[in-house]
Design brief:
It is built from 10 helices and 15 strands. By secondary structure, the protein is an alpha/beta fold. A hairpin with an 8-residue loop joins strand 12 and strand 13. It is an enzyme of class 4 (lyase).
């Protein structure tokens, strides 16, 4: 829709004598303005955004400490792709993904392949491309067609995988989730896998609900399929959220490179990696899992450096921030931060679960995310969308949405708890949510406008 408001107005108090007080909304102005003026215009519009700390819809980090902010300011100008100009940043990038490879139990973390990305979406694209290229090489060696690749994944997959299949001509095969199978768990997998399957995606922290898909069970199902058919299908784990939760809070859970069938894993550094947006990481089990023909070579300190990210120029600052957190927090610090976050999420789930209006879909048992739906009631006249609107009036952003295919008649509401959401803030959210529910329950008995008392100064 075209915005028919043609100008951006500035309060005359903020303008200098003789300076313009309005600017064309969708055209570059003809003349200059003072930096203070341009700042004030943008500052005033940005105030209309929600409070990031009260945004319980996003997984993306919204807080870092003062030293991180200082480091961020010092590194605004670093371009991650220019490894020859910024060799120290390039070296720190390598240290980070090797640390992550070790965290995920890669067989040889120092001699595998990995990279930073703009976010998990780019990392997923790279993981999918590597699966497709390895499948193409294998098919060509066998003298078979490479015309019809497919990728098997949950119907609750993040939208970046739909984009991957669309952009790179891969047929998506969605395994539906149901009331009996709330996540993709390997059931009926043989109905989806064939000789054209480039891989299977398993999600460690489903976007809809935060639940883990059991990678070990999916791997076992693929083992059975290989025993029956000879098909050797690898797994990419989309651990955008869970990749920085499970190693610290569920270290005994086998989901990573301890499973030989897992070829690659991605994570969002800007989610539970605790960095500002946007930063992602991808690591392959071993260097051979990243086909050589996907790698470009650049000159670096008189030597040779591989590069295989899809993006070119991108900020290097977030990479330095990730390294800062690894040094500052260490394993113990990450455990403490993530444990506190999941404790807050479980407190919220327990409080919301006590309200008779709701049925919990899950209880933040995996990552600090949970969802709920309305309990059955014949006389209720409001929906979760109404509740979402009421909460927004109090500043809280708590989304409501339908579940994916096969469950589209189920609407849920979801809370994502991130570092910075304290128990104190959570108690205020519970208070406000209860007040919103009470208001909605009473709304049917509210007198008409003519009968309401007026406003008194």
């Amino acid at each position: 829709m075209v915005d028919d408001r043609r100008t951006v107005e500035l309060n005359p108090l903020f303008a200098r004598v003789g300076e313009a007080t309005s600017f064309p909304r969708n055209r570059i102005p003809e003349s200059e303005s003072l930096p203070e003026t341009a700042y004030q215009v943008i500052h005033d519009e940005a105030m209309l955004d929600g409070n990031a700390r009260m945004n319980l819809a996003t997984f993306v980090g919204t807080w870092m400490d003062d030293y991180a902010n200082r480091l961020y300011r010092e590194a605004f100008d670093k371009n991650m792709v220019d490894k020859d100009e910024y060799p120290a940043t390039a070296d720190i990038e390598d240290r980070c993904w090797r640390m992550i490879a070790a965290l995920w139990n890669a067989p040889d973390p120092d001699h595998t392949a990995g990279t930073s990305t703009m976010g998990s979406s780019e990392a997923c694209m790279l993981g999918g491309l590597a699966l497709k290229r390895r499948w193409q090489h294998r098919r060509r060696q066998d003298g078979a067609s490479t015309d019809s690749p497919n990728l098997v994944m949950s119907s609750a997959v993040q939208v970046c995988w739909e984009k991957f299949c669309n952009f790179f001509d891969v047929e998506p095969r969605y395994v539906p989730i149901t009331e009996e199978h709330k996540v993709f768990d390997g059931h009926d997998l043989e109905s989806y896998v064939d000789e054209n399957t480039i891989g299977v995606v398993a999600i460690l922290g489903v976007t809809y609900t935060g639940m883990y898909e059991p990678v070990k069970d999916i791997s076992a199902a693929l083992d059975r399929i290989q025993n029956d058919t000879g098909l050797d299908v690898r797994i990419h784990v989309d651990a955008a959220s869970g990749g920085m939760i499970a190693p610290f809070l569920q270290p005994e859970l086998e989901w990573d490179f301890r499973l030989p069938r897992v070829a690659s894993i991605n994570v969002s550094g800007h989610k539970y990696g605790l960095v500002y947006p946007g930063l992602g990481w991808i690591v392959w089990r071993q260097a051979e899992d990243l086909p050589e023909d996907l790698i470009a070579r650049v000159s670096y300190l008189g030597g040779d450096m591989p590069t295989f990210a899809l993006n070119f120029s991108r900020p290097g600052a977030q990479v330095l921030l990730q390294y800062y957190l690894f040094l500052q927090l260490g394993m113990d610090g990450y455990r403490r931060v993530q444990q506190n976050t999941i404790d807050v999420a479980r407190y919220l789930a327990s409080e919301i679960g006590t309200l008779p209006e709701f049925d919990l879909w899950n209880e933040a048992q995996d990552i600090p995310v949970f969802a709920w739906r309305l309990a059955a009631s014949a006389d209720r006249q409001w929906t979760l969308y109404d509740l979402s609107d009421r909460l927004r009036m109090k500043g809280w952003i708590v989304p409501a949405y339908p579940m994916p295919d096969n469950l589209t008649d189920v609407t849920v509401q979801r809370i994502v708890v991130r570092n910075g959401m304290s128990h104190d803030l959570a108690s205020f959210l519970v208070r406000d949510l209860r007040a919103c529910v009470d208001h909605l329950n009473q709304a049917n008995g509210t007198p008409p406008d003519a009968q309401r008392s007026g406003f008194h100064h």
